[in-house]
Amino acid sequence: MSEDIRIYVADLAAYNNGILHGVWIDSTQHIDDIWDAVRGMLKATPLDEKSEEYEISRLSDSKTPANPYK
């Protein structure tokens, strides 16, 4: 995975239920691979219900630190 440009994609249903669930995705890869990563994150939701909504909530590049909580 490239360390240059990544996005953090969060599960909104989990967030609305007080759970932080998401993944950092290399945004330099092919769009189909990005969508696969988003779908995989949603499928792995910690909720009992199906999760469909997501948010791109953070960008990390060589000048912006990644999530300080991970």
Description:
With 70 residues, this protein is α+β, with helices and mostly antiparallel strands. It has one domain. Helix content is 26%, strand content 26%. It is built from two helices and three strands, in the order E-H-E-H-E. Strands 2-1-3 form a three-stranded antiparallel sheet. The longest helix has 13 residues, at 31-43. The radius of gyration is 12 Å and the shape is globular. The two termini are 17 Å apart. The mean pLDDT is 85.
Keywords:
single chain; 70 residues; alpha+beta; 3-stranded antiparallel sheet; globular; Antirestriction protein ArdA; ArdA
Map the helices and strands.
Layout: E1 6-11, H1 12-16, E2 22-26, H2 31-43, E3 54-60
Write a brief structural summary:
The protein is α+β, with helices and mostly antiparallel strands and 70 residues long.
- How many distinct beta strands? 3
Helix content percent band:
25-40%
What structural category characterises the helix and strand content?
Answer: alpha+beta
Beta-strand percent range? 25-35%
Q: Name the helix and strand elements from N-terminus to C-terminus, one letter apiece.
A: EHEHE
Our measurement of the CA-to-CA distance between the termini, rounded to an integer number of angstroms, reads 17 Å
Largest beta sheet, briefly? 3 strands, antiparallel
* Coarse morphology: globular
Stretches where pLDDT is under 50 for at least 5 consecutive residues are: none
